Amino acid sequence: xxxxxxxxxxxxxxxxYLFDYTMANGKYARSSLALDTYKALxxxxxxxxxxxAAKVCSSIELMQTFYLIIDDxxxxxxxxxxKPCWHTLPGIGLNAINDGxxxxxxxxxxxxxxxxxxxxxxxxxxxxYE
Length: 130
What we know:
By secondary structure, the chain is mainly alpha-helical. The protein has 5 helices and 2 strands. 17% of the residues are buried. Pfam families: polyprenyl_synt.
């Protein structure tokens, strides 16, 4: 199945809204700490490797946001970080479950794209899901 013109626009808009609403303006403490750790352990890393590491570290934020969306639905929470929870927004509702799963699936894709030839790619993915 492949998406056609207007479908691509609709899905792209929804994903952008999801990312902007649920992930933007966060502190990114988890991914920043992971990237700082990588930099400390590999001080001579090339710019290319730093960019790849940053992408892998960003997957931590995807995972955290996925967990928060699902947790808010389970708890029937109304607010997250002082603003309405994703699932409470007009037009979102329980479709937020699909949005959370989209974030979860994105983790795998981001890591595979960031480090396609890394010898420990499978171990990294496995560790994230344990």
